[in-house]
Amino acid sequence: MVDEMGDPRRVPRADPGARRIAGGRPEVARRPQELAGDRRSSQEIAGDRRRGPRAAARSGACDAPDAGLATDRGARRRDAGSIPAMIPLARPALGDREVDAVAAVLRSGMLVQGPLVERFEALLAERCARRFGVAVSSGTAALQLTFRALGVGREDAVVVPALTWPSPAHAAAELGARVRLVDVDPAEWNAPPEAYAKHADAAAAVVIDQFGNPARPPHFEGPVVEDAACALGSLLASGRPCGSLGVASCFSFHPRKILTTGEGGAILTDDEGLAEELRSLRNHGLEGPGRFRRPAANHRLTEMQGALGVEQMGRLDDLLARRHTHAVALRDALEGHVELQVAAEGARPNHQTLGAILPEGVDRDTFLERLRELGVQGGRLSYALHRLHTLPRPDESLEVTERVVDRGVALPLFPSMSEAERRTVADAVRSTIDTLRGGSDATQGGASG
Ligand SMILES: Cc1ncc(COP(=O)(O)O)c(C=O)c1O
After folding, report:
1. Does ligand 1 lie within 6 Å of residue 227's CB atom?
2. Residue with more model confidence, 294 or 84
3. Is the CB of residue 234 below 6 angstroms from any atom belonging to ligand 1?
């Protein structure tokens, strides 16, 4: 069986025995692995890295890439032919610059939220034409703190598109809000503006730029929160950046996203009061030295993550351009075989996920198994939130969401993809569909993509 969505959450966790480094200036270990109680030498770890993720996993190291994820360094190893090829769904673009930046932070001893996080926030806000950025521990935390800062509470209604990862709905439900799920557009896979009109009494509405595809502004007078978790670098139909819609926008920096800080998220807003409230909510509810405004958790980002974010922002345009090239080629090659997500007129998506709806008659699990046999990882595309027991079932049918979820797959697309990998993906998808439909076996046909 194939992992649900090639489950993006299956990121290797840090060693649970790792010593926690809290505020202040800790004693700095020269070798970062000492901080995690790892007794191997730098050379041993470097050796594991050179031999690849399997060797690292065998030796108990916790830096083996996630299922569905590999780094740029992994890609170079694969090109050298040292690892059996499996093209992953995603490969974070992490290179020597990121490694050096994190190492520099570790040597500095300043590990918790500081100038690099601040710089990352400023770069994000500038990029998305917002006044303020508040970095937090994840995209889910960004949504949760935003709802809380907006005063969403028990019994308030919050409108959320039904097709998505559960975070926006769970974040509202955790505050006791009643989630109202709405169906999505069959071409865009985002909730259409008119879906919000009959929920004028709701306390807030969430629009999602699903898989990086820019949403259209909803017909809703109240506070709008843009879930732009996947949408850094996308442009709305108005020409403005994704992340500039509504009272606040929320981003994720999970390794499956456009840029990554490992885990991480951010909220962007033009509202100074809201930004201040969010900064307090991410930091135990502090409003000044020794003064707590309200009980709140710790959702700060570390300086290591800040360093990653700053480095990744420096290469954002390059990452987006590469994604665009691959997406155009793959979409061309797959046309006629699968149904692809369509952007609203004038909008420009970042192609965070290459989603495809399989034709009738092609069994998805069989398709994904065959794809894997051909060296290509695929996954289920998304979730129908009304089917989760954690959320309420609306009265109306959500048939578009169900169709996309039942027939949708995610396919590999990442900036460091080689042309050969792209061709392999296109050929594998087409030949598998042709075979399962009972047509000709296109593996014999010409390669493209
Ligand atoms: C649309 C959407 N919102 C929110 C999130 C949550 O982000 P994170 O995993 O950083 O908590 C995700 C993650 O996949 C997402 O796809």
Report:
1. yes
2. 294
3. no
